[in-house]
Predict the structure.
Amino acid sequence: MNKVALVAGAWMLACVATVVVQKAGSSEPDSKSAKVKHGQYLVENVSTCGDCHTPFNEKGEPVKEKHLQGATLMFKPTVPVPGWAERSVNIAGLPGWTDEEAVKFFMTGIGPNGKFAAPPMPAFRFNKEDAEAVVAYLRTVPAAK
């Protein structure tokens, strides 16, 4: 019985040590990494920003090297829509935006110029935590060359 307890205890100690070593080897603080990952989830899976802000090749696949760097929109409205944008803007790295301006935009839909973005861009209403996560992620996306 003591051998079983000793082996089980050694195994548990080895598992705990492995987790501690993996955590210590992390290059980013957990909170920042978690925030960026949450922002990535919101950008890629909830808002699907890449559908408009990433160009697609002739096969209809996103061009990975130009992820979120702006693109000509592949669709148009069926009826005239005033101010319709023919092209999406580069959001990789959020060039020209302060963090405060970008967070406000993702919370209210209102840009630094005091206006809503041109259609078809939706006016997002993220809460502050989600808006900050989106900004944190977009800052990590390589900007256009």
